[in-house]
């Protein structure tokens, strides 16, 4: 048995095509969803990611503005800019590209963004809404993972979902979203004892540790659904995931590849949240 490969890139394109139509209809009502991305410094990975966001925004018709600031920008200057954008009606989404320089306290910046414009889904108010099962802006990568599972009509309710990794960006929120869908959720992390025994019992396995081929086919349960969030660069310079794809696909029932798996869905869900924010601001939701 070989797994069905779920290409997030194909789902992302389908959703972006639908969003393009939705934005066209909004523009006929003089509503233009606006996203501002703030980039501090010149981190190559961040710059590449931001370019991807701009290209996707252009495609669906979201008005995307990139504000680049020098590495030496102070926390006070950044907070002042966010305050201005919070009060600007043409801006529906504000995203500060992480990581930030060491002299800026990340949490202070996240909390300064208005929850109504927090299209990254990281503000404590939106995290709280997610935790209590309320409608909100969900963090983009976890939300994309749920959409990937739903796109294949994969039953989540009652399944044992095992999350490897407990970051605030992926691990913790994806576990909460799966719990909201009535899965039974186990978190594994660097301090977990006998981690492989949990992995072997996972119906749905989500791996987000940033370690090349941390999981192999031997580790997983026959027929498991494997979602690989990791992006690692090999010594040859190619991209690969946290899961050793070739061995895992012989055991799993569904698997996402790296690249073209979860990654494209992250930007797609960011656009989804920005459009949703514009609709909310205009009392269309």
Automatic annotation (TrEMBL):
A Pfam family annotated for this UniProt entry: THF_DHG_CYH_C
GO terms of biological process kind: L-histidine biosynthetic process; methionine biosynthetic process; purine nucleotide biosynthetic process; tetrahydrofolate interconversion
GO molecular function ontology, one term from the record: methenyltetrahydrofolate cyclohydrolase activity
Domain Tetrahydrofolate dehydrogenase/cyclohydrolase catalytic, first and last residues per copy: 6-120
Database matches in SUPFAM superfamilies: Aminoacid dehydrogenase-like, N-terminal domain (SSF53223), NAD(P)-binding Rossmann-fold domains (SSF51735)
Superkingdom in the source lineage: Bacteria
Residues annotated as domain Tetrahydrofolate dehydrogenase/cyclohydrolase NAD(P)-binding: 139-281
Record-listed NADP(+) binding positions: 165-167, 231
The keyword Ion transport is assigned to this record: no
The protein's assembly and partners: Homodimer.
Protein name, per record: Bifunctional protein FolD
Annotated source species: Saliterribacillus persicus
């Amino acid at each position: 048995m070989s797994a069905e490969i779920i290409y997030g890139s194909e789902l992302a394109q389908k959703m972006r095509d639908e969003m393009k139509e939705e934005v066209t209809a909004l523009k006929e009502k003089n509503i233009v969803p606006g996203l501002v991305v703030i980039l501090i410094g010149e981190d190559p990975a961040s710059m590449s990611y931001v370019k991807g966001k701009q290209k996707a925004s252009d495609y669906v018709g979201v008005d995307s503005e990139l504000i680049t600031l020098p590495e030496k920008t102070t926390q006070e200057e950044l907070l002042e800019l966010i305050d201005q954008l919070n009060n600007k009606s043409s801006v529906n989404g504000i995203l500060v590209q992480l990581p930030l320089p060491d002299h800026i306290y990340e949490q202070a910046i996240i909390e300064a963004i208005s929850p109504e414009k927090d299209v990254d889904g990281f503000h404590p108010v939106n995290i709280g809404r997610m935790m209590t099962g309320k409608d909100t802006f969900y963090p983009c990568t976890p939300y994309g993972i749920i959409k990937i599972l739903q796109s294949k009509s994969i039953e989540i309710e009652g399944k044992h979902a095992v999350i490897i990794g407990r970051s605030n960006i992926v691990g913790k929120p994806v576990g909460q979203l799966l719990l909201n869908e009535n899965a039974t959720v186990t978190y594994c992390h660097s301090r977990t004892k006998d981690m492989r025994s949990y992995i072997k019992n996972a119906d749905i396995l989500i791996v987000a540790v940033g370690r090349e081929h941390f999981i192999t086919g031997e580790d997983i349960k026959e027929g498991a659904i494997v979602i690989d969030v990791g992006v690692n660069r090999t010594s040859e310079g190619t991209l690969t995931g946290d899961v050793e794809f070739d061995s895992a696909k012989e055991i799993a029932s569904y698997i996402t590849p790296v690249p073209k798996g979860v990654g494209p869905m992250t930007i797609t869900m960011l656009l989804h949240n920005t459009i949703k924010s514009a609709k909310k601001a205009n009392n269309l939701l």
